[in-house]
């Protein structure tokens, strides 16, 4: 009975250790990546956000099959001999967790960024040039129990060279 109980605790300990390692790795990748997607403007950002959100639907069976093919002896990473090891489980769990954590961090960072930058005029000026593509206005849905704040910024119309003022309505507590 004591041997079985010890084996049980070894299995549970291994499972918890693998899950914690995968979560730590996924957080180390997702936190900076999701925050950068929310704050840093660059060409192709929307496409990356769409891809990250698309990976929400990634079936675990597909991840397992792809990792099996990659880590098997005849696969491209077969020389590492990681197949059926705890490291392979960490890689599989992190692969499933990274898109979810990245999307959650992106959304939270984006909301915090908007709420922070709509509070002072100096920050609004910085927001003018970085946050929105030309001619775009983001809108939010008011929620119960929250007051609405307005943030003005200058944007360019989609056609022509004239400058206009646009108003963005953001929710705040």
Low-confidence stretches: 129-173
Q: Can you say what the CATH homologous superfamily of the largest domain is?
A: MetI-like
Strand order of the largest sheet: 1-2
* CATH architecture identity of the largest domain: Orthogonal Bundle
Total domains: 2
Distance between the termini: 57 Å
- SSE succession: HHHHHEE
Instruction: From the alpha carbons, calculate the radius of gyration and give it in angstroms.
Output: 23 Å
Mean pLDDT: 76
Number of strands: 2
Coarse structural class: mainly alpha
User: Describe the biggest sheet?
Assistant: 2 strands, antiparallel
Oligomer designation: single chain
Q: Please tally the helical runs, counting DSSP H or I stretches of 4 or more residues.
A: 5
Descriptive report:
This protein has 5 helices and 2 strands, in the order H-H-H-H-H-E-E. It folds into 2 domains: 117 residues, MetI-like (MetI-like fold, Orthogonal Bundle); 53 residues, no CATH class. The protein is globular, with a radius of gyration of 23 Å. The chain starts with a helix and ends with a strand. With 173 residues, the chain is mainly alpha-helical. The chain has a two-stranded antiparallel sheet. Strand 1 and strand 2 form a beta hairpin.
In short:
The protein is mainly alpha-helical. The protein has helices spanning 2-39, 45-54, 60-71, 86-117, 121-130; strands at residues 147-156, 163-172.
């Amino acid at each position: 009975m004591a041997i079985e109980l010890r084996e049980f605790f070894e299995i549970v300990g291994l499972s918890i250790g693998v899950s914690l390692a995968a979560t730590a790795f996924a957080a180390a990748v997702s936190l900076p990546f999701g925050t950068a997607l929310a704050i840093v403007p660059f060409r192709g950002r929307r496409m990356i956000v769409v891809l990250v959100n698309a990976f929400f639907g990634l079936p675990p069976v597909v991840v397992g099959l792809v990792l099996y093919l990659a880590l098997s002896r005849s696969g491209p990473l077969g020389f590492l001999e990681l197949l059926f090891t705890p490291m392979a489980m960490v890689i599989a769990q992190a692969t499933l967790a990274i898109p979810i954590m990245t999307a959650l961090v992106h959304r939270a960072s984006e909301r915090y960024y908007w709420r922070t930058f709509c509070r002072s005029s100096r920050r609004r000026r910085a927001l003018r040039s970085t946050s929105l593509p030309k001619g775009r206005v983001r809108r939010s849905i008011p929620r119960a129990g929250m007051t609405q704040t307005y943030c003005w910024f200058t944007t360019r119309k989609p056609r022509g060279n004239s400058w206009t003022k646009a108003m963005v309505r953001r929710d705040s507590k």
